[in-house]
């Protein structure tokens, strides 16, 4: 066993957090906010079962975010964890401005005027943060406010850029509430000026994932990719699906992105709510076929923001996402501003564990390698690794990857055997944490394939994942130094 491996194993003995005991394979993404932004609270969340921390750039300063990032990096270093960090860009979020006395009661039939000139909102005029509203909307278009709690219809578009609307569903309008335009193709760029500033910060901080909000088509992803490439950033892209246009262009978006987030909050406002469950199911299926991680997000355990138990419907919602094969489920306000962040995570882990205990995925039968794929040969090796692992009831599947692709592909087959991925690319270790079932390890030696496999098995033995007599399926590539796509499959017994 090499000196590097010995040092690595020695580091594991002083850990306070024993993540090896956490067995949920569907990963948990938790949003960091005022309720959990201290080092101690973040440690509690990791102990409870969090795999990825999300930083929402719709709120907070860069200084605050930098402190949180430092906490997570310290946690990873001190506790030898691979917790991933996701930076979530705000995107072209549309809002009303300040409202007089923060409450304006509007009733069905009232006529309001939306303007792009800043003012305190009254029944006369209301500021909307959308400079080209008059140019994009058409007569009869529906505009939804505050997640659909209020609804208005465009009745007149004035030459000065103001838009008159008739209230079709009344209520109380408060300051800074969001606006959705389900009937309108907005002309705002995918990356706003604020997003570009936040993206520069994300790149400087070397975050693992960057999420792009309100994606409409593949061009939005291409633009973001070019910005990352200009700065030689290794961050991977998550496309947030929350617009009707994104659903229509979902295949191309999945192909161009590194991962997908089904952001059901805005999606359920922009589209008829009854369509969301099947959209979620279909997107997960398409992501599995493309070996792209997928996150189900928004309002999963929302009642636990101020309660100690979730609603029964929320329990079923989490369970169904797991059954459908999602890589990860996400918590937003539940951890960011809720009263019981760690308890929410613990509850989610219990739900996931119960479903995974009873349910077996075995997706290799309906995700066979496609001959037209440019990665067909390596896909076939990964496919058969999972199939053989099932046939021989293997105790582990071990993969090597330089680009991350092997890890994502093996994960997409949802094998029954525990999945361990090794890589010499440090940036990948945290990124792979998002993928279903993956436990990732840094490994940089390249003596020979036999020595690599021997070292990997030894690491897993010392960590308690393997024991003598276990059956192991290894994938790798040879010649080792060429870093070719996966081209080797080996079955062995642990000595």
From the alpha carbons, calculate the radius of gyration and give it in angstroms.
24 Å
By CATH, the superfamily of the largest domain comes out as: Phosphoenolpyruvate-binding domains
How many distinct folded domains?
Answer: 3
Number of helices: 17
Poorly predicted regions are: none
Q: What value does the average pLDDT take? A: 93
CATH secondary-structure class of the largest domain: Alpha Beta
Question: Main beta sheet: strand number and arrangement?
Answer: 8 strands, parallel, barrel
Output the strand order for the largest sheet.
1-2-3-13-14-15-16-17
Helix content: 25-40%
Going by helix content, strand content and strand pairing, the class is: alpha/beta
In short:
36% of the residues lie in helices and 21% in strands. The protein is α/β, with parallel strands linked by helices and 495 residues long.
Description of the structure:
This protein is an alpha/beta fold and 495 residues long. It folds into three domains: 22-91 and 190-358, Phosphoenolpyruvate-binding domains (TIM Barrel); 94-180, M1 Pyruvate Kinase, Domain 3; 363-493, 3-Layer(aba) Sandwich (Pyruvate Kinase, Chain: A, domain 1), CATH 3.40.1380. Helices cover 36% and strands 21% of the residues. The chain is elongated, with a radius of gyration of 24 Å. The chain starts with a helix and ends with a strand. 42% of the residues are buried.
């Amino acid at each position: 066993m090499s000196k590097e491996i010995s040092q690595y194993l020695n580091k594991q003995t002083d850990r306070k957090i024993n993540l090896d005991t956490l067995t949920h394979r569907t990963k948990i993404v938790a949003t960091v906010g005022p309720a959990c932004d201290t080092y101690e609270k973040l440690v509690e969340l990791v102990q409870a079962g969090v795999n990825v921390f999300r930083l929402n750039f719709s709120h907070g300063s860069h200084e605050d975010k930098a402190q949180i990032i430092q906490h997570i990096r310290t946690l990873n270093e001190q506790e030898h964890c691979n917790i991933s960090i996701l930076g979530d860009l705000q995107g072209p979020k549309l809002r009303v401005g300040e409202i007089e006395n923060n409450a304006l009661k509007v009733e069905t039939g009232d006529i309001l005027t939306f303007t792009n000139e800043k003012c305190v909102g009254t029944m006369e005029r209301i500021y909307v943060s959308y400079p080209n509203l008059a140019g994009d909307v058409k007569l009869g278009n529906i505009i939804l406010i505050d997640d659909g709690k209020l609804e208005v219809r465009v009745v007149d578009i004035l030459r000065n850029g103001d838009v008159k609307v008739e209230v079709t569903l009344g209520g109380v309008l408060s300051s800074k509430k969001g606006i959705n335009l389900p009937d309108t193709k907005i002309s705002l760029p995918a990356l706003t000026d604020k997003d570009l500033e936040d993206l520069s910060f994300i790149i400087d901080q070397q975050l693992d994932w960057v999420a792009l909000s309100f994606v409409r088509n593949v061009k939005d992803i291409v633009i973001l990719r070019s910005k990352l490439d200009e700065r030689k950033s290794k961050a991977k892209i998550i496309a947030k699906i929350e617009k009707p246009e994104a659903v229509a262009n979902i295949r191309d978006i999945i192909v161009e992105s590194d991962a997908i987030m089904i952001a059901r909050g805005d999606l359920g406002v922009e589209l008829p709510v009854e369509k969301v469950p099947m959209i979620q199911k279909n997107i997960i299926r398409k992501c599995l076929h493309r070996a792209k991680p997928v996150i189900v997000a928004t309002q999963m355990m929302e009642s636990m923001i101020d309660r100690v138990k979730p609603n029964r419907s929320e329990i079923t919602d989490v369970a169904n996402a797991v059954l459908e094969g999602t890589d990860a489920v996400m918590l937003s306000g539940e951890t960011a501003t809720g009263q019981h962040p760690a308890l929410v995570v613990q509850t989610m882990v219990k739900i996931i564990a119960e479903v995974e205990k009873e349910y077996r995925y075995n997706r290799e039968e309906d995700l066979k390698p496609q001959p037209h794929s440019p990665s067909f040969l390596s896909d076939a090796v990964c496919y058969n690794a999972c199939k053989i692992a099932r046939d021989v009831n293997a105790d582990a599947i071990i993969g090597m990857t330089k680009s991350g692709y092997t890890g994502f592909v093996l994960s997409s087959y949802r094998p029954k055997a525990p999945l361990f991925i090794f890589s010499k690319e440090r940036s990948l270790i945290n990124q792979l944490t998002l993928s279903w079932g993956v436990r990732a390890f840094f490994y940089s030696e390249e003596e020979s394939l036999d020595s690599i496999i021997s070292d990997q098995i030894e690491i897993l033995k010392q960590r308690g994942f393997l024991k003598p007599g276990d059956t192991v399926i290894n994938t790798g590539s040879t010649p080792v130094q060429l870093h070719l796509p996966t081209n080797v499959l080996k079955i062995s017994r642990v000595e």
